């Protein structure tokens, strides 16, 4: 895993956008398409807005880009908590991405298990696989203060899932279900971008990187690619509690 510590949030966002563009261009060059799964939460807001700006809007090969989500709340697509709505409003509605290239998780579908199975079928048909795992060119993840990523929260059932690619995961903390990729699918990606910012994430960043921490004690610690690249981009506030060893091993921009 490579860690990039940016001097401020704006630099972190720019580095994330550059990485997204590079990955999109190389994926299209090598395989004729760019498959990306987006994260939810609030961190991506400025990242998505930058991708919708003139420069990236004109450079990213949107006509060959296919957009998925790594997780979704069990709400309708127009609900304020919808990850789809966040991305649609800040990015997808502003770039020349064909509607048919957007694969929304049906958060409104009940039971949530049906929504998860239906999304798995969408993955099977797009990636043209039946049993073997789909391989995303890029999965974009955030991290919560409790170390969750996607909707893989500590002490939830989905952490143990070894077979299904997408599951409905009941999250006690919110007394609600979430739809989420599982680790087998996440860890089969070619590249992973973890983006985080702000002092509220400083403690979890420190705990995630401390070598003496209980392995797999935090869900994000279970993100490890067999043969892919994990890039963690954060701003200096999120990096403010990192150990000197972790700081030394990071790239500073
Ligand atoms: C979600 C996200 C989730 C998010 C973290 C961090 O659906 O909420 O996928 O994993 O990345 O909760 O959220 P913030 O960016 O709001 O801190």
Structure report:
With 253 residues, this protein is of the alpha/beta class. The two termini are 17 Å apart. The strands form 2 sheets. A 7-stranded parallel sheet has the order 3-2-5-8-9-1-10. It has a 3-stranded antiparallel sheet with strand order 4-7-6. The protein has helices spanning 9-31, 44-51, 54-59, 83-90, 112-127, 183-186, 202-209, 244-249, and strands at 2-6, 34-38, 65-69, 71-73, 138-141, 166-171, 176-181, 191-196, 229-235, 251-252. 31% of the residues lie in helices and 19% in strands. Bound molecules: 6-phosphogluconic acid.
Summarize the structure.
This protein has 253 residues and is α/β, with parallel strands linked by helices.
Q: Any low-confidence stretches, pLDDT <50, length ≥5?
A: none
Shape: globular
Record field, number of beta strands = 10
Largest sheet: 7 strands, parallel
Task: Give the strand line-up of the largest sheet.
Answer: 3-2-5-8-9-1-10
List keywords for this structure.
alpha/beta; three-stranded antiparallel sheet
Indicate the topology.
Layout (H helix, E strand, L loop, with lengths): L1 E5 L2 H23 L2 E5 L5 H8 L2 H6 L5 E5 L1 E3 L9 H8 L21 H16 L10 E4 L24 E6 L4 E6 L1 H4 L4 E6 L5 H8 L19 E7 L8 H6 L1 E2 L1
Helix pairs in contact: 1-2
6-phosphogluconic acid binds next to loops.
């Amino acid at each position: 895993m490579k860690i990039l510590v940016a001097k401020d949030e704006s630099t972190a966002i720019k580095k994330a956008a550059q990485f997204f563009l590079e990955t999109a261009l190389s994926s299209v060059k090598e395989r004729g398409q760019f498959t990306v799964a987006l994260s939810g939460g609030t961190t991506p807001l400025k990242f998505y807005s930058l991708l919708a700006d003139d420069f990236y809007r004109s450079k990213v090969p949107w006509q060959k880009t296919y957009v998925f989500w790594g997780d979704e709340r069990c709400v309708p697509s127009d609900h304020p908590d919808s990850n789809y709505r966040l991305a649609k409003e800040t990015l997808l509605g502003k770039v020349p991405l064909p509607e048919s290239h957007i694969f929304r998780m049906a958060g409104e579908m009940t039971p949530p298990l049906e929504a998860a199975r239906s999304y798995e079928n969408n993955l099977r048909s797009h990636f043209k696989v039946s049993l073997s795992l789909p391989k995303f060119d890029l999965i974009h993840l955030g991290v919560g203060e409790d170390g969750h990523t996607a909707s893989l929260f500590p002490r939830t059932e989905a952490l143990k899932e070894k077979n299904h690619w997408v599951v409905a995961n009941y999250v006690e903390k919110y007394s609600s279900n979430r739809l989420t990729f599982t680790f087998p699918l996440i860890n089969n990606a070619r590249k992973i971008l973890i983006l985080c910012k702000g002092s509220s994430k400083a403690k979890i960043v420190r705990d995630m990187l401390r070598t003496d921490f209980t392995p797999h004690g935090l869900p994000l610690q279970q993100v490890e690619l067999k043969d892919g690249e994990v890039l963690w981009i954060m701003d200096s506030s999120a990096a403010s509690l990192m150990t000197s060893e972790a700081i030394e091993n990071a790239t500073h921009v």
